[in-house]
């Protein structure tokens, strides 16, 4: 797994779906493959300047004119051990499914909605990690509402998602399961900068 940091300079705010497409340009030989990276917007020092942490299976190539490399890709091999404790950070899109009040029948009559209340958001996080790690402490340090415009053949619409940034500590229970969570991401909306779980040893 490779970790790298990038800077996106733009004359206007870039919606997360468009940012996802820009990041994909760092993998010119993977355009027809399944997405094999996760990313998180780390900071916005100026109105339109975004620092991006990127985790990828393949080594990214600085071929995009819109992204400037801040830190070269570093290959990391996870060596988690049961019982070890870590600080963690995660930007995620906590959601739940409810019955569609308009009576739509798609998706078994269910629609996905954001989880709003803090206690339910924390419970959502613990469910995502159940069996892989025990959440020892957690803070919800930021909530954002991200607007996006999706423009794919047959799928063009304006949307929005609620994101929550978690900061806390956890203890590893099953290293392989937690490694899989880190590799695959946590929760939905990974194309919008959600799901990247990072750890730092305490």
Secondary structure elements and pairings:
Layout: E1 2-9, H1 16-24, E2 37-46, E3 49-56, E4 67-75, E5 85-92, E6 95-99, E7 110-114, H2 118-129, E8 133-152, E9 155-172, H3 175-184, E10 197-201
Antiparallel strand pairs: 1-3, 1-4, 2-3, 5-9, 5-10, 6-7, 8-9
Pfam families: CRISPR_assoc
Organism: Methanolobus chelungpuianus
InterPro entries: CRISPR-assoc_prot_Cse3
Question: Care to describe what's here?
Answer:
The chain has helices spanning 16-24, 118-129, 175-184, and strands at residues 2-9, 37-46, 49-56, 67-75, 85-92, 95-99, 110-114, 133-152, 155-172, 197-201. β8 (133-152) and β9 (155-172) form a beta hairpin. With 202 residues, the protein is an alpha+beta fold. Helix content is 15%, strand content 48%. The strands form 3 sheets. It has a 4-stranded antiparallel sheet, covered by helices on one side. The chain starts with a strand and ends with a strand. The chain has 3 helices and 10 strands, in the order βαββββββαββαβ. 25% of the residues are buried. It comes from Methanolobus chelungpuianus. InterPro entries: CRISPR-assoc_prot_Cse3.
